[in-house]
Amino acid sequence: MYQSEREIADPDGGADSSHRVAAAVRDCLAPLKVSHVFEPVVEHVLRGTEPEALARLRTHSVDAGMVAAPVVHRRAEQVAAVADLHPGWTRQAADAARRTVYRTAPADVLARFGQVLHAASGRAPDQGEPSWLLVLADDVVRASGAVDAADAQSVLRRWSPDVVAEVARAGAAPGRTAVHATLSALLYADSRNGAHRRHQLLAGDAGVAFLARHSDALAEVVTGLADHVRRDVAARCARSPEAHAGLAAGLAVDADAGVRASALAALSRLDGPRQVDLLRPHLRTASSDRLPDALARLADLADGVVAIEEALADGDGDRDRDRDRDGDGDGHADGGSEDPERARLLRRAVYRVRVLRSAKAAVRVPPVAAPQDAGLAEELRILAAGSGPDEDRTWHDVVGRLALLPDVRALRDARRAAGTPDADRRTTGLLVTRTTHTGRKIGAALTPQDAERWWPLFAERLDLADEYLDKGDGKRHPDQSAVDTTTMILTILERFPAVPEPLVPRLTSMALAANRHRLSARRVLGDHPGARASALDALSGPDGSTRSSAAEWLAELGEPNVVGPEPGWEFGQGVLHPSARTLPAATLWWLDKFREQALDRGVPADDVDRWLGLARPTLRTAADGGGPVVGRLGSPLLLPPDVETPATVYGPDDRSEYQLIATLDLAAIPPGATDLPFPPDGQVLLFANVELDDVLLPGGAVYVPAGTPVEEREVSLDYEPYGCDSPEDLDGDLRHTGDLRLVPGVSLPSCPLDDETLAGHPFARTLQDVWSEQSDEGGRWQLGGHAYDFDGYGDPARGSAVQEPGEELTRPEDWVVLAQWVGVPMGILYWTITRQDLEARRFDRVVVQLYANP
Q1: Are 444 and 488 in contact (CB under 8 A)?
Q2: What H or E segment, with its residue span, contains residue 7?
Q3: Does residue 439 contact residue 477 with C-beta atoms inside 8 Å?
Q4: Same domain, yes or no, for 645 and 791?
Q5: Domain span at residue 554?
Q6: Cα 655 to Cα 717: distance, rounded to the nearest angstrom
Q7: Of 731, 744, 583, nearest in space to 663 by CA
Q8: Residue numbers of the chain with a pLDDT score lower than 70
């Protein structure tokens, strides 16, 4: 019962639960005294009277905000104003009062308190989700998770999902039933309302039992939730797999790859026949882009391939009936029921099981090599015995452990011994699900040494190798990096001692294609006689692209009288700029990958091709630090005797000399390696005093023609370099690298674009986003090409056209990036020059800029 302040103050009033609840509610709502809405709101919470107080509450944002968001920092005068009207009030005391309410108040009081919190947050009463029940549940966990106190644990023990449903029922929470309202409130998430707190109320045995009892309602609610929430729900299905079998089966063909993976993991808790029954309907109904994961599971289950074959037979029968009915033989009139892509996937799945899986002896494999590391061997023994901790926890540092395994089949065998289902698939799956310490997937950074440890497992399971040739990327979240599994598995297949014959037809087809994977496929095939014969046949085939690819391949193999096509042929006539068409195929690989991903993002092919026309050649550092030497970094400074050390001159005896960053050997730069008109020989010295004072740096460049006598020059440097303690330390870091090695690269615009460019390229921003994902983590140095974007600062080349008073006018489009160096923390240096000055060898006009965000 509600008690007035006089009754609460009466020492004879008793100390029953209603007394404690009333006092606690007053402490919670004390900030409302400042706005004079305190009494009506308290009346509403404790008695259910004056519901109009909620509307009044929404008009008092500051004081109501102290109730809705008690943890938000408030000004001292705001807190003091509340304490003056409610002596002893603090935010900590208010939270303790909330825990009293949550621990002891009846359901109707809790419902009205939740409605007050919802109103105090400023939400409209008819806004729907997030509802007052969501706000209440979120606050329950917040108030109880902030302290490690007995009352906090009592609150969490009380607030099972059943109690949430009781509160929902008492307050008529929005939803078809109280259970639907509860599930929506506990699972809902958006950009403002993370669900990680409320998910705690679904944890434990009570949460598992609640979800199992209400599996039908859960299936109805989950369809409208965000991807990451569906992933969480799919994972929860594993706690009661039979109860949620239907839901998990539905999520097994969800639009999100991570949801599919979690749902299939939950289904794996069921026996094989049950999984086949649940997944069988998808063979006829699921869209082809969502089907491969379910097909892979069926392929690993007894009778799963039979189900696939039955679906194929049913589809063939439907097509025959359509043909008989329509009489035109196309099998698709009136919406013929067979999807050609689905049929292809089904047939390939059957081939993998019936042909490739039985081809284990196609390549000889060595015996399984045991790990030499004693600790790792013991972990595998524990894993095999099934007596250790959860497998995923044991192998949380799987990247480091894999590096110690000479043969990953040792891990596969330990999993088999432990009774892990699909031990082969789960082990190979590490490549596309686990990330390195830098956030990259293992498979995306697979080295030849890694491939040496992996190839025997794939040699024993050619069906899995064939699956990975299908470009699945193992991406379980939009923010995760993807893995080009086609490239990954081709890298592994290169380590095979001989090309596996069952894969030769498919590899030959890839080798004769026009995309980037043809290069790796050819390395795998080598001089395989059957593949070479197919290439010779293709020379006279009807498809022009295939003829070009065959000619390119056979020319590489030294076939007499075969001349390869011009570089860049795979992009089509007139797509690439002439300077980019001369790039080696291994460099154009990046543009092909870009084109593929841009098309996957929905950019029309014509727009992609127009953007590819902006590609320009560059020289850049490689991720492995290899490549030809084109210069050196740091001192010594070698200049002709009659050339002064570059400096800013303030007066006859006042010079601030520049620091040498790099010396480029122009004779080592092949013609056409960049889009710049470099002199054919000589040296270019790049200078910069790497300061943070301004975007424009003291610095520049000096050209020393070939054969010019030089002398070593001492330099007096007096500035504080960004990122180093002294100029001498910076020079030491540069000299530690020493040789500047660069390899061919290609670049596309990444800086913010001007209106004219945007008008001609309506998908430019999407295309730039796609290009930004093309990285091998190299590229600290780049000569020529487009500038790297840095935090949207703008294009440093076009920006160099901004003139100081009295300077000669230049056009933005005349400026180019001579060099760029990602050489300071959170920053990048650019040396820019006009194309005309570069042709005239006026390196004294180079502009140096530093874009940084320290």
Answers
A1: yes
A2: helix 5-9
A3: no
A4: yes
A5: 499-565
A6: 10
A7: 731
A8: 1-16, 60-62, 71, 123-130, 146-149, 316-338, 360-362, 386-399, 436-439, 472-481, 777, 803-808
pLDDT digits (tens, 9 = 90+) for 182-232: 999 999 887 777 788 888 899 889 999 999 999 999 999 998 888 888 989
* 113 and 46 part of one domain: yes
Residue 591 to residue 696: CA distance in whole angstroms: 33
Q: Please indicate, yes or no, whether residues 390 and 353 belong to a single structural domain of this protein.
A: no
How many CA atoms, within 13 angstroms, populate the side-chain half-sphere of residue 804? Answer: 2
Are residue 778 and residue 643 in the same domain, yes or no?
A: yes
Q: How far apart are CA 749 and CA 756, in angstroms?
A: 14
Bridge partners for 42 per DSSP: none
Nearest to 235 by CA among 214, 262, 261, 264: 262
Three-state DSSP state, 344: helix
Which token pair is 369? 């090599």
How far is 90 from 76, CA to CA, in rounded Å? 11
Separation between Cα atoms, residue 806 and residue 811, nearest integer Å: 15
> Are residues 48 and 93 both part of a single domain?
yes
Same domain, 344 and 320: yes
DSSP annotation of 728 reads: H
**Strand, coil or helix: 167:** helix
Contact 179, 165 (CB under 8 A): yes
Q: Are 785 and 824 found together in one domain?
A: yes
The answer to whether residue 316 is domain-embedded is: yes
pTM of the model as a whole = 0.76
Q: How many structural domains is the chain composed of?
A: 5
DSSP string, 283-294: HHHS-TTTSHHH
Do 761 and 661 lie in a common domain? yes
The alpha helices in 715-795, defined as continuous H runs, are 727-737, 755-760, 764-772
